[in-house]
Batch of 2 targets.
Target 1
Amino acid sequence: MCGIVGYSGKRDAVGLLTSGLSKLEYRGYDSAGIAVCKADGTVEMVKSKGRLAILEEKLANKGLSGNAGIGHTRWATHGEPSDANSHPHRSGRVTLVHNGIIENYMQLKEELIAEGKVFLSDTDTEVVVALIDRFYEEDPIEAIYKTTAVIRGSYALGVMFDDIPNTIYAIRKDSPLVIGVGKDEVIIASDIPAFLSETRDYYLLDEGELAIVRDGTVSFCDATLAEHKKELLTASWDVEAAEKGGYPHFMLKEMHEQPKTLKDTVFPRIDEAGNILKNELKDTSYIKRIHIVGCGSAMHAGLLGKAFIEKYARVPVSVEIASEFRYANPVLGEGDVIVLISQSGETADSLAVIKLAKELNIPTVGIVNVVGSSIARAADTVIYTNAGPEIAVATTKAYTAQVSVLYLLGLRLAADRGTIGTADYNAIVEALKLLPEAAKKVLENEEHYKELAKEYFEARDMFFIGRGQDSALCCEGSLKLKEISYMHSEAYAAGELKHGTISLISEGVPVVAVATTEAMFEKTVSNIKEVTSRGADVIFVTQFDDVGGFYKDKIALPAIHEAIMPILAIIPLQLFAYYVSIERGCDVDKPRNLAKSVTVE
Ligand code: AGP
């Protein structure tokens, strides 16, 4: 996700801003920029697509200096990486940097355009600075709060006004902002690493609270303009721990980000009337058959998409492994659509499929996490997952975001085809809105999953079984365990086990059994009894109550609409795999033999 830095004090802001931004590079970005209040009071902006080094080259020839400024590293969400889309953004007398996602920016942008506003970028951020500029007459604080009253979504803002020199205003909702306090200087940032080399003392900015940073001092107020004092905290982390937000591994940090990344991915795609993917998909009538293509976890997400889309939209879906599909001379024609799923957007096998689709004149939809990546640029239509940069090699938050996009796509197709009743549609839409809170509840039971990992980490093999959507989910649960703990594992359709593989079940063999649909619950319980009777130790994963006695351990899930339960059910399995990996002394974030993006065949 984006990184924000702001500086006010007696030293030169340019060097401190670029140094602070360099400490946030781990967050992933595609462009960078700064704005500085110069000695004459004017605010000058320098920004560029690409790495921080390119910005520093631009700055080296500028001779820019001043004692206050804001800086930004951009992880693109709206609008490809480009100089114009880079932050800061300006409108009139206002200059601003932003981290977050404004869910209603299109509607606000249309209103501003109708008022004659000309936009220079494709970003949601430029809408925010244009609103502050529209509301700004004499009171900057009033202009900021009038703006935050009309925007929906997540934001951390650093704002400067041409006619208020050496002053930075900072406010946040859902996106982080911390305020480092040094000797006669203040540094605002998205994360502590940005100022850890200058000071360990900092304030946490609360939601809706405004920080006013001026001449090396900071004061705080709220929407009532009442000033108040805050507790000054001291960071005990070292830089490396700080980059992981205090978590021991990026993977753990990213698993805990899932409530937010699910919200960032789903909420902007459901408008106030309950319409879905209006901005991304103008028309779906051309879609008669879907081929979901991906690799590894992306393909596993596709399996869940198939179950959902076929159930509700009654559109036939096939799920293909990209490395196979690209050479299979697939039978494709009128009405076929290829949906490419890829976190990195650079996977060679998946990119080859897009090229094949173009040769065959088959429309493509990309479900991609990296804006402007090769697959995103090549696909005819792109639906971005807003999971932010995923540093750990093993995907977690990007995978659940991919699944949530597939559920949105399924609902949209079902609505366009009239294959889903209003009650069902509204129930699933409401459930998707409850997903972030439900995911938080699942994460609260982390200690239980950790204890289970301690119980089973020495197993030689582990099996994952389920039926229907749960069978698809088990594929990802099994892969997570294999790729980070190096334990052999296999996912199996629960009803298929008895046709051979059950011969591998003997005393003490651990089996994870997942049952999240009412229709398959009893049948899965029967399959559990089949393996328990042969000595298996079963971990039962379900939201349903049961009489017990037919499994060894249980992972109880909070109940939301069963159609989207797999997104919740995977989280304990991610954490279980993580803690098994820890117990086995593996390199969780960088497992052996694996790469984050497989750009070779
Ligand atoms: C990493 O945890 C995944 N297991 C890996 O299989 C990944 O999903 C696959 O390599 C595809 O990567 P992509 O989503 O970037 O295309």
Target 2
Amino acid sequence: MTARIIDGKAFAVALSKAVASSTAAIKGAHGFTPGLAVVLVGEDPASSVYVASKARETVAAGMNSFEHKLPADAPESELLDIIARLNADEAVDGILVQLPLPKHIDTNKVLGAISPDKDVDGFHVINAGRLATGQSSLVPCTPWGSMLLLKATLGSLSGLEAVVVGRSNIVGKPIAQLLLAADCTVTIAHSRTRDLAEVCRRADILIAAVGRPEMIRGDWIKQGATVIDVGINRVPAPEKGEGKTKLVGDVAFAEAKEVAGAITPVPGGVGPMTIASLLANTLTAATRRRGLPEPTDFADACARLMA
Ligand code: NDP
């Protein structure tokens, strides 16, 4: 059996289209343009590329993009001042502080300073708490995008055994909460889990969010399972030439696709969904803050566009 490959790239294009058309409808009906502010501290090359593509895609979706760049040695107080200004700015619906932050800045303090209603990364403790208690919240982008892929692949997830490998606040824990909310039976595994391979073999849905290249082997996967590989790892690729590298996931893809029912590739799976999910969150934040009806059900809109 060879798994169906879940095309996150195509799905992200569909989601971005759904967001753009919803943005246009909201602009037409209510006369405002949603705005996303991204704050970057320092010049980490990967973060700079990521921030530039967020800005490009925000504008492509018909929203306003605001960028704030601070030098790597900017004091924490300067970053907190910018966040306070953005919290108060009516033109800003979403605020994202690009992580990681330099070591002299307290990340939790910074994330906690963002207004929960504008917290489009969904990392504020208020949003984490709302998610955990089943209340309306802004949900972290990568977990939310992963759930859209799962729902489009499986339809109802009710009653399925889900195993999430990884328990970070930004990926593992929120994905586990979303799976629980979708009526899965959820196990969260981590570096202290005993016999991880055996735990993974129970999974109808296996989520890998570890950050270790190809750690999850084909024989850890139940026949027909759906595998979502969140991991992004850069590894040497001598087959491409000296000094070359390539991206791989946390799952040994070539082995896993012979066993799984469906699987996300790396690259081209979960990764492309993240920015599209961020734009969807910005639109949701914009409508909620103004007391307007929620934008389209993006899961349905995407499924229709993908059909
Ligand atoms: P973290 O490093 O914060 O968390 C990794 C988790 O994996 C931890 O809970 C850790 O356990 C667990 N872990 C580490 N080693 C093992 C092991 N040998 N066996 C079992 N569990 C283990 O990573 P993130 O959650 O931030 O990211 C995970 C991956 O997802 C990374 O590759 C990252 O690049 C990628 N990512 C991709 C995104 C995207 O697609 N857009 C967005 C965000 C992340 P413990 O808690 O016990 O230490």
